[in-house]
Design goal:
The protein has 281 residues and is α/β, with parallel strands linked by helices. The protein has one domain (5-77, 134-280): Zn-dependent exopeptidases (Aminopeptidase), CATH 3.40.630. It has 7 helices and 13 strands. It has helices at 38-41, 49-52, 99-102, 125-154, 195-206, 222-227, 258-280; strands at 5-8, 17-21, 62-66, 87-88, 111-113, 116-117, 123-124, 157-165, 183-186, 212-214, 234-242, 247-248, 253-254. The chain has a 7-stranded mixed sheet with strand order 1-3-2-8-11-9-10, with helices on both faces. α5 (195-206) packs antiparallel against α7 (258-280).
Length: 281
């Protein structure tokens, strides 16, 4: 147990399956004071995703979840994906901002929503470095250690990175104004997983009556890109759950379908665990 994340261990015989929920945390650090309102900040929250995937340990998998919000530090970005305009002073490593930082969604989230700033002045470099080491590094160290330990024992790992998405993309997204499917399963066009495993996950949701797309509109971000290594039999896929199927997005409340979606995700989790047991056999 850590103050920045926790790990829920597998029940029974542990399988080399790791689910991680990096954006479902709500515990705001005491020394973080963004300008944006709580309501605006909550639009980037992967609401109750850790609960949606809570069945994972019952099926032999491990669940890692962050306690802090994405609007503070985004664990699904590279450590150096930082907008230089947000930093006062120098960090002890070069910054390499990507397009995510350009649109306000880098490691440090500049915008809560289009046109809604998080900060009115640059952040001291010493403060940012402490945040990165305390929150970002601890989570990634835990994730890396679990993956390597599983691989050392079993020679394979199945890593599922769990997220939610708005039902319709906004101006900060590449699919602005477009309605989204129920689920998006991503492997960066086959770079982070055997496409057959990715397809199996998508088909598992389709078999339950949901719409599921692969690598559209999301291809997978830093977590699957960094940890997926098909050459070593480490498959990483990203799952995005459409918030519209389990919650009232504007009211930030669970809908009447929450329990059913949670149960159906549990069914998919069970199917993944059954596949891995076959692979180990």
């Amino acid at each position: 147990m850590s103050g920045t994340y926790d790990i829920i261990e597998a029940e029974g015989t542990a399988l080399p399956i790791l689910y991680d929920s990096p954006h479902s945390g709500t515990q705001r650090p005491a020394d973080w004071a963004p300008l944006a309102s709580d309501a605006d900040l909550a639009t980037s929250w992967d609401a109750w995703v850790d609960e949606l995937f809570a069945a994972a340990p019952r099926h032999g998998a491990t669940l890692l979840r962050a306690h802090f919000p994405r609007s503070f530090i985004d664990l699904n970005r590279a450590r150096d994906d930082i907008d230089p305009a947000l930093i006062e002073g120098d960090l002890p490593f070069p910054l390499r901002p990507t397009r995510k930082s350009e649109v306000g969604m880098g490691l440090l989230r500049r915008l809560a929503l289009p046109g809604v700033e998080n900060y009115d002045r640059p952040l001291p470099a010493a403060t940012v470095l402490r945040w990165i080491e305390t929150y970002y590094d601890s989570y990634h160290d835990a994730l890396r250690a679990r993956i390597e330990a599983m691989h050392a024992v079993h020679g394979l790992v199945r890593h599922i990175d769990c997220h939610s998405m708005k039902s319709v993309g906004n101006a900060m997204n590449d699919d602005a104004g477009c309605a989204r499917p129920d689920f998006v399963i991503s492997d960066r066009d086959g770079e982070t997983s055997d496409p057959a495993f990715t397809a199996l996950v998508a088909d598992a949701f389709r078999d339950l009556g949901y719409s599921a797309q692969i690598n559209d509109p999301y291809k997978g971000a830093h977590l699957v890109a960094h940890y997926g290594d098909p050459a070593r039999n480490i498959f990483s896929v990203q799952i995005e759950v459409n918030r519209g199927i389990y919650m009232h997005e504007k009211a930030l409340e669970k809908s009447g379908r929450f329990a059913q979606v949670q149960a159906d995700i549990g069914t998919v989790i069970a199917r993944i665990s059954a596949l891995v047991r076959q692979e180990l056999a």
